[in-house]
């Protein structure tokens, strides 16, 4: 009975060692993958969410200002056209 117990103990030690080794390899692979992804993402031209939101807000403000300026130009052109009256082309017969 003692020999079976010893064989069982050796088998348990071997399985525990293998499980520990596999767990360590898994942690090492995960750490390596994370580091590779950080290097990849750092080398790419990505912007942060804060930068994206700031530029988006600036674009919306510029679009609103552009629409206001277009309306102002249209009003000025309409006022200028009303002030000058109908134009005739030079050389046209009246």
- Rg, Å, rounded: 39 Å
Q: Averaged pLDDT, please? A: 85
Number of helices: 2
Unreliably modeled segments: none
Sheet-strand content, in percent, reads under 5%
Structural class given helices, strands, pairing?
mainly alpha
Number of beta-strand segments: 0
Shape: rod-shaped
Number of domains: 2
Give the SSE order as H and E letters: HH
Work out the helicity level.
over 70%
Distance between the termini: 129 Å
The major beta sheet can be summarized as: none
SSE order and pairing:
Elements: H1 2-43, H2 49-84
Account of the protein in words:
This protein has helices at residues 2-43, 49-84. By secondary structure, it is mainly alpha-helical. It folds into two domains: 10-46; 47-82. 0% of the residues are buried.
Could you provide a short overview of the structure?
The protein is 83% helix and 0% strand. The protein has two domains: 37 residues; 36 residues.
Question: Which properties best describe this structure?
Answer:
2 domains, 2 helices, 83% helix, rod-shaped
